[in-house]
Write a structure and sequence with these properties.
Length: 331
């Protein structure tokens, strides 16, 4: 008799279905059980408002978590950057698999790179974090750009460029890689230009805290380097008391592995990882005021040590004036 299928809760978007399908295959391999996708519509999927207005954090997650709590699904897959920093007691983050490319990318008309865009170029993004950093980069490099708030899935966003309504849009490299559309990227934005969202490129596999057998099975998909990195990033975000609609960028990386990671080769052979570098940025969306700091230290051995690293950098950023930059909440 075949074992009962595990039910994986997922959002219905093309990207969510793609990444959930990849996780489903991996979970089938480690458990020997079939996995079926259960599609769940979230508030973030149906609302047409801008993310900054509907609260950003959690709008894509709440319905999935409710389905988990009610026992309608056995586990759920989220984009980690959508996950609120506070973890509910009844749920556990069972696995954070190897991270995809964390960078942001540009899809521009005529295969243009960021620095080749014409004066007055209109760049679409729904993220205050991307707006802040792009505008700051433009100001410091003499570029003349206009950031335009947009919403919608990957097709909708790239469509604005194809239709000539925008010169370029900014998207996450990881998302395009997962749906097989990385060939449409015209420029990869260096993390020195735009720091990604905390947790960007990483997935979170969540299940009920009481399901010890499933927690143990899912743990086989966990990547300790990715987990320690995103823990530090999310701790920074939490300490700044910022939701995912706030203009905060953060990236924890391992200096010898950073270049291979950006090339999509996270396990570079023979590289000994001894240090973790955490960078954080917060700024006004017009790019005129930015607080950007970094810290490097030994790779944290525990969840608590990774959390402390994020908190410490946040404290330094707040001391340098980050507090006044966090208040850009859309009313």
């Amino acid at each position: 008799m075949t074992e009962k299928a595990l039910r994986l809760g997922t959002r219905r978007s093309k990207l969510a279905m793609a990444q959930s399908g990849q996780v489903a295959d991996a979970v089938s391999q480690v458990t020997g059980r079939p996995v079926e996708l259960v599609e769940i519509t979230t508030y973030g999927d149906v609302s047409r408002e801008h993310l900054a207005q509907i609260g950003g954090t959690g709008v894509f997650v709440a319905a999935l978590r409710e389905a988990l709590a009610r026992g309608e699904v056995d586990f759920a897959v989220h984009s980690l950057k959508d996950l609120p920093t506070a973890q509910p007691e009844e749920l556990v983050l069972a696995a954070v698999p190897v991270r995809e490319d964390p960078r942001d990318v540009i899809v521009a008309r005529d295969a243009l790179k960021l620095t080749d865009l014409p004066r007055g170029a209109r760049i679409g993004t729904g993220s205050p974090r991307r707006m802040a950093q792009l505008n700051a980069y433009a100001l410091s490099h003499g570029l003349d750009i206009e950031t335009v708030p947009i919403r919608g899935n990957v097709d909708t966003r790239i469509g604005y460029v194809h239709k000539g309504e925008l010169d370029a849009v900014v998207l996450a490299a990881a998302g395009l890689n997962r749906i097989g559309r990385s060939d449409e990227v015209t420029d990869f934005l260096s993390v020195d230009t735009v720091l990604p969202a905390p947790g960007q490129g990483a997935l979170a596999i969540e299940c009920a805290a009481g399901n010890a057998e499933l927690i143990a099975a899912l743990a086989e998909l966990d990547d300790p380097f990715t987990r320690v990195a995103v823990t530090a990033e999310r701790s920074l975000l939490a300490a700044l008391e910022a939701g995912c609609s706030a203009p905060v960028g953060a990236l924890a990386d391992f200096p010898p592995l950073s270049a291979p990671l950006e090339r999509g080769d996270p396990q570079a052979d023979g590289q000994i990882v001894k240090e973790l570098r955490l960078r954080g940025v917060v700024g006004t969306t017009d790019g005129t005021t930015m607080v950007q700091l970094s810290t490097t230290g030994p790779v944290p051995e525990t969840h608590e040590a990774a959390t402390a690293l994020g908190r410490e950098l946040a404290t330094e950023m707040l001391a340098q004036g980050a507090t006044g930059l966090m208040g850009e909440r859309a009313q």
